[in-house]
Amino acid sequence: MSIYKTDTEAIEALVKKYNQLTNEIGKVIVGQDETVKNVLISIFSKGHCLLVGVPGLAKTLLVNTIADALGLSFNRIQFTPDLMPSDIIGSEILDEQRNFKFIKGPLFSSIILADEINRTPPKTQAALLEAMQEKQVTAAGKRYQLDNPFFVLATQNPIEQEGTYPLPEAQLDRFMFNIWLDYPSFKEELQVVKLTTVASTAKANKVLSAEEIIFFQDLIRKVPVADNVIEYAVKLVNKTRLNGEFCSDVTKKYLQWGAGPRASQYLIIGAKCHAAINGKFSPDIEDVKAIAIPILRHRLIRNYKAEAEGVNIEAIIQQLL
């Protein structure tokens, strides 16, 4: 049962909690405002995030801080070439009574940091697929439900590709957002150095409980959307497909593969959340545009011409928008 009398009150409460969250995270994380916003949108939309950035941009610290502010259990899994599926899911052991007993792996937590996910072989990467889609894992023929809420935040280093296993398209498609982290500005870096080279370090206080997160996730789903906004989102995704009804000239020229229906779903749910955290009761086309790049970035595959001409995915999406 809702503690708020009307949806208006509930949206206002979400805006208040979102601002409190960004303030708490801002005590520890300097800058990266867009990244923090997208990660929080993803959490309220029941999605997962892929963070791409060079080492030292506070990706791990960001996840840790968000887990603190949300008051959720958190596990970090360091993905390595010798990591096995049982290392993350868990495995059965014989107890003293010679009965098989399932020992849960680190995947049984609300927030999972899959650190350097592309360093582990496809067999182990695939163990995450069921968890991300079904919020459950299967071990020795038995199904085990994961925590609710459940959220995977994976990181990748875009520079070093030696000894890595690129994520298959099916797995990439499970991520709602692909977020690129950039270097901090000069002013931000000055602040980072001042904050991190002293004896005491700041820590984010808990702002939300698991129950409140689930309530706000359900609230986002109830946000109404006008037909023209849904049509815009679906048309935008359709434009990326070579055999689509609305296939654009940019697509024919530069794309080898387009986005699937999951992109349309994420565009709408993401637009709903973007509207709600800004105090709006229904998303418009601007909300779809605001979250389009991180949602489409990893779902489009450039062709040889685009690579040869140095046309990046962001530029292609901007033209489609």
Would you write up a description of this structure?
The protein is 47% helix and 15% strand. A hairpin with a 5-residue loop joins β3 and β4 (100-104). The model has no long low-confidence stretch (mean pLDDT 84). It has 14 helices and eleven strands. It is an alpha/beta fold and 321 residues long. It has helices at 7-28, 33-44, 59-70, 85-89, 122-134, 169-172, 186-196, 210-222, 227-238, 249-254, 261-277, 285-296, 304-308, 313-320, and strands at residues 49-52, 74-78, 90-94, 100-104, 111-115, 136-139, 142-145, 151-156, 177-180, 255-257, 301-302. The strands form four sheets. The protein has a five-stranded parallel beta sheet with strand order 2-5-8-1-9. A two-stranded antiparallel ribbon has the order 3-4. A two-stranded antiparallel ribbon has the order 6-7.
Brief synopsis:
The protein has about 325 residues and is α/β, with parallel strands linked by helices. It has helices spanning about 5-30, 35-45, 60-70, 85-90, 120-135, 170, 185-195, 210-220, 225-240, 250-255, 260-275, 285-295, 305-310, 315-320; strands at about 50, 75-80, 90-95, 100-105, 110-115, 135-140, 140-145, 150-155, 175-180, 255, 300.
Q: What number is the mean pLDDT?
A: 84
Number of strand segments: 11
Count of individual helical segments: 14
Shape: globular
Q: Helix amount, in percent?
A: 40-55%
Query: What class do helices, strands and sheet pairing give?
Result: alpha/beta
Strand content: 5-15%
Q: Please state the CA-atom Rg, rounded to the nearest Å.
A: 21 Å
- The sequence of SSEs as H and E is HHEHEHEEEHEEEHEHHHHEHHEHH
* Spatial order of strands in the largest sheet: 2-5-8-1-9
